[in-house]
Structure formats: structure tokens, C-alpha cells
Amino acid sequence: MMNKIDAEITAMTLRYERAANRDAMRSTRLTPNNNLSGYWIDNQRFFYSSEHFDADLDRVISTPMIADMSSGSAGPIMPLEQLAIELTKHSEAPIEVAAFADAEYDMPNDSQLVVTLNGTAFRLDIATKSASSAEPLSTDPELFSPDGQFACFVQGNDLWLRDRVTGETRELTNDGAPYLAYGQQSECCLGMVSYRKHPVPVAIWSPDSQWLLTHRIDDREVPDLPLVQHASPDSLRPVLHTYKYATMGDPSPIATFVAIHIPTGRIVEATDFPAIVFAFSPIAMRLAWFGDDGATCYFIRSNIYQTETDLVELNLDTGKSRIVVSEKAEQGYLDLHALVAAQINVRPLASSNELIWYSQRDGWGHLYLYDAATGALKNQITQGDWIVRDIIHVDEGKRRILFLAGCMDMETDPGNRRLCSVNFDGSDLRVVIADSCDVMISPRSLSGHDQEKPFHPSYARTGASADGRYVVRKLSRIDQGSRIDILDLEGNARLALASVDTELFGEWTPPRPFKALAADNETMLYGTMFLPTDFEEGQHYPIIDYIYPGPQIAYAPRHFETIFASQARMLAELGFVVLMLDSRSVPLRSRAFHHAGYGHLLEPQLADHVAVIEQLCKRNAFMDRSRVGMIGQSGGGYATARALFDYPDMFKVGVSVCGNHDSRAYAQLWLSKYGGPGSESSWEAQSNQSAAKKLQGDLLLVSGDMDENVHVGHTLSLANALVQANRDFDLLIVPNAGHGVLLTDAYTQRRVWDYFVSRLAGLRHPKNFPLEYRPADTARIWKLYAQECRG
């Protein structure tokens, strides 16, 4: 007969198994097409990959598809069985359908499909459905010109060019130097050790393949940061890695933009307008692009506090640069999009020499029309107590803009978007698509996309067709699934591409969106509550607050089965009620809402979380106010530790992962923009080390020893402060793990589960529960995670 302890462990083992089925790796396999992507071949045909989950392989397999709005049909270019037969004709070994789990598809032109498998590119004629050739691909990191003729690559500190037809190479630059290199990330990119292993050129090809826009970054004055790999698989001794890392008060990396004319080798430099590099290359952040006229390129630059922002134009014919528009904030910082990694809402208009510019100057994120020749403001285009989220299409002939708007649905969730249109002069504002869920349409990427893929048409549109008649939209709600279709904005015809249903998981308890008041007792906040599959209203459940305090991204999920929410889904299956909340100081609302915590990185966020939990516990008898924990990663790790220090009556258990516990020692971009020109005493008071003596609950500190973003020194410095304060705590340093340790390291994930089950739920857990993440799944997760970060 099973004793009480064995029964408890057996029951918890079943919960662990359910949690394992809800992790990001497994979830993405069970929800194929949830992040369907593709591009327009022409104004009526859309190319995409349709995914399906093969249970026998336990992998996602994709099929190349074309949706044709002229015929109202969508179907495969050819069945996978036939495709395998064709590819085998040009392969040394037979190709099975299972191999397409690792395939990539592209259409470099409207008549050809390229299938990339295991380092070989197979070309197929779409009309005859026959394979014509196969060529091995180089594994060297390169950027490919849109016409397919050239590839640029990094050699030493310079950029080189390779002719893909003849194989000939030549230098594009020749005076690069250490820490003064062309076409590479800044040493301060928060991932330099990894980047050195695979240095993809940081540059942009022009649409006509005549120019390459890049930069030369000067890192020479930036201090070094050592990072020790204690258990290198390649050495019995610890390995020392050193890279440049700028913190507040250090010299900043400086970029000089450079355009190279490929036919002649002529170089044009914007030497009069150097740009501060805020960790990531401005090209990687899509802050530089070529103009539609083919004779100009543009880039954004800001001062150290990002209170002043310029749009700079570089004339490729004359070599001269000028500031087109400049904006200065009297208080707070400037954004050109609500989310930091999204495509900025700036559009130079070549045909009329005008400019569409995004600003929060009236308290909300709106569009303004400028004369691009003089820099004079012509008129405000949009206005009201709502925000422009993304510019989807600009019709210069009709002088009309198609855009996504937020905060139009304050009753349900201000984060839900609607598709709207408006004239350049601000007249005739219309809501084109509104739904009870979020409306997502990809904006045009000004600088192209995926130029590291040799057969990808990098300037193809992904959201709206080039003429603006059709849009590929995703309608998604966290508790109802997703559907992706193409909509005819003129005739309202709809062509379904994919759907993702909640039935895929069998029995489950849907997440519950909720609303509650902020700590000011006035501002309404929105979030999501995750519950276990076997949830019962009459039971009492411990609570875990899964936090990220912003202020650069919103965190509460609105779409079905996001990567962001995977941690919440798993923890809920262990028997917890898990909350994700967008507090004040995160984006997607008014400027006042977003800047509520300017100068103080964790308040009012933590106060809001406490206020919301109090309200939810009063509403829901199943929530146990006496057992509340918190988990967070990066800025969320910083917030988690601080929550236990400052709010011990609320938070009893915390897991702080890779926390930037003292922002004075973190990347310069963070404190300079979101903290502003504060005082040393203020930053000292906000460091977790200064408050460590207040710890009363159970705290687990986690970090990877190879975290290039938030150095492991942050975690160890807080550990030292806790030791000095004679406070008990737990510590996990994961060898060879980086900043994504919580998302991609199975051992860390299992230890997090064990900690909350034993310390917060007060239950026994299975010992050494087996949890495994496969490399193929990890690669897929990072790709989807990057998409979510961009909005």
C-alpha cells in the first residue's frame, strides 16, 4: 500500500509531466502555424510555409505554399512526397519526407522555389515541378545582395565582397582596426563572445544591389569586462573571455555610417553626424535604411539620455549629410515606436519630399507630417487618447495611411490593436478591422529582412501587399486560439491560411484575462491569470507572480501560446495560480503611463503588483494570500529580489534569474535612457545590494556563468551582500549557460519547479525529474522569441 509521502510524490510527478508538456519547446510543436510567416510574390500571391506536427517524428514539418487572391485559393507548391522524389534526383542519398523538418523554403523569383536541406540548396521550377540543380552552401556568415550576385563577409576588421558566380573576392574597406571595425557589432552588443564565433556582417544591401550601408564603430575608449568560462568543454582550465562593456559614465561606442558603391568601390561617410551606439548596432535595431528614391539613406541618432533624436539623411550622390527632423523632450525620453525592438514609425516620402514622424509630444503616440526639405511641421495626422502602434502601408498617391492602433478598446484590453486608415491631413479616420481579440499585421521592414539567407527576397512585403489592397492578418486571443488569413480591404473577401485551436491540448483550463486598479487606486491595469488543468474553484492555490517590469516591452500576453507565457503555463500545471501583469511604466498606453517610473526602475511597478494581487485575492477565494511567490528573469530577476526585500508581507518565495541587481554595473543604454540623469545616491538606493539585509523569505538566485548580457557578477555581488547581512538564500550558477538560461536550459527549469513546489506549495517533488530540451527545438524557440520581442 502506498504511503502518504509516496502518494504525494506520485501526484506531483503527474503534475511535472503535465508541466513538461506545456513548456515552450513542446507547445510550439503542438501549435504549428501559430507564428506563420511569409511574403508577397506580387500584389495577389503570397508565399508561406504551412506547418504540421508529425507525432511519429515528434517534429514540426513545413510545406511550401502559395495563396492566390485572384483565384481565392491556397495550396502547396507540390506535395512533400513528390518534392522528396525530385530532390533525390540531385542528391547522393535518398531524401525522405521526414527530412523536411529541417528544411527552409524561399522563392527568389516568381517562378523558382529553393529548398535548403542539410547545407544544400535545391532549385525547382514551379511550373514544371522539377528540380533543376543542387549546390552546396557555405556555412560562413555572409549577407547576400537582393539580385543574388554578391555576398559580403567580415575578414578581420574589414568588409569583403564575394562574387557568387565567379567566386572572386575583393576588399570593400581596408583601414579597419581592432575596436574600430567596419560592418560588425559593437563590442558592447551584450553578446560579443558569441558573435565572434559567427560574425554576421552588420550592413544593409540596397534594393537595387548597388550600395551597401554599414558603419564603423569606435569601441576603443570603452572599458574591458572579463568573463570567465569556468567549465569550458575545450579546456581543463577556466577560459578568460574579454570584451568591451560600457556602463553609466563610461565612454560610449560611436558609429560612423558608411555607404559603399559596389560597382566602383566609392565610399560615402556621414562623418558630420556620429551616432552613439546603445549596445546593439543601430542597423541591427532597424534604425537605418535606404530611401525609396535610390539616392539617399537615413539613420536615427540620439543623445546619451535619448532625450534628443535626429533623423539624418545621407545623400549618396553628393556625399553630404543633413538633419531632416530633430525632436527634443523636455522631460523623460523619446521613442519612435511604443516597443523598443519594433520597426520605427518613420517614413520618408520620396514622391512628395515629406516625412511621416512618430511622436508622443501630446501625451500619446501619434503621427505627424513634415516638409522633408525644410524640416517644418505641416500638420498632426492622428490625435486622440489612443496610440499608433504600427504603420502598415502608405499610399503616397492617395495620401492615405493604413496603421494599427492601440488603446481604442479600454474596456477589454488597451493592448489589443485595430486596423485603421487616415488621410495625410488627418481627415477621414476610419476603423477598418476591429475584433474582440488582437489584430496583428506585420509592418513593412524599411531595411529589408533576412539578408543573411542567400535566396530570400529581402525587400518583399510581409504584411500588406505592395498596392495595399490585401493584408495578412493574425487574430489571436490567449484563451481562444489564433487564426491567420488574407483579407481583401476593397472587397472584404477572406482567404484562410491557418488556424490554431485550443483543442490541440485536449483537456485544459483556459487562461483568464483580468483587470484591477493600480496602487494609485485610479489607473486600470490588465493582465492574465494561468490555472492548472485540474483547477477547482473550491481549492486554495498558492500564487506566483511572473514579472517583467519593463519599461521597454509589455509583458502580459494577449496572443495564444506565446513564448513569453511558457513559464506561466508550466508553473500553473504544478498547482499554482500564475499571474502576468502589465503595470504602470510598461508601454502600449499613454506617455504618462509609460513614464510613470522614470528615474526609478522598479516603482510604481512593484507597488502595482502588490495592489493587484490584493484585489484578486479578495475577488477569488481560490487564491491563497498567505502563499505568494515571484519569479522573473533579467529585469524581472532584479524586480523579484527587490519584491522580497521591500514587500516581505506579500512575497514569501522568489526565484531571481540573471537579475541586473545594480544598474550602475549594467549596460549603459539601460540606466541612461530609463533612469535619466539621476544621482549616485539614488542609484545606490535602487541597487538590490543596498536592501539585501531586509530579506525574510526564501530566495533562489540563478545565473549562467557565461551571461554576456547581465554579467554573473551581478548575482554574485548580491550573494555577497546577503552573506554580509547574514541572510540565508540559495544559489545556482549554471556552467556555460547564458542570459537565456531560464528559457533553454532544462536543468535550470527543473530546479525552479522544485524550489516553488517545496518552498511555496510546501509539497514534496520527484527527485531529479527528467526534462530534456533538444537543439532543434531551442533554435526554433529563439526565432519565435525574437518575433515576439518585435511586437
Automatic annotation (TrEMBL):
Residue ranges constituting the Peptidase S9 prolyl oligopeptidase catalytic domain according to the UniProt record: 564-759
- Protein name (Swiss-Prot/TrEMBL): S9 family peptidase
Q: Name one GO molecular function term.
A: serine-type peptidase activity
The family database entries (InterPro entries) matched by this protein are listed as: AB_hydrolase_fold, Peptidase_S9_cat, Peptidase_S9B_N, Serine_Prot_S9B/DPPIV
Q: Please state every residue range assigned to the domain named Dipeptidylpeptidase IV N-terminal.
A: 139-435
UniProt GO BP: proteolysis
What Gene3D superfamilies does its record include?
Answer: alpha/beta hydrolase (3.40.50.1820), Dipeptidylpeptidase IV, N-terminal domain (2.140.10.30)
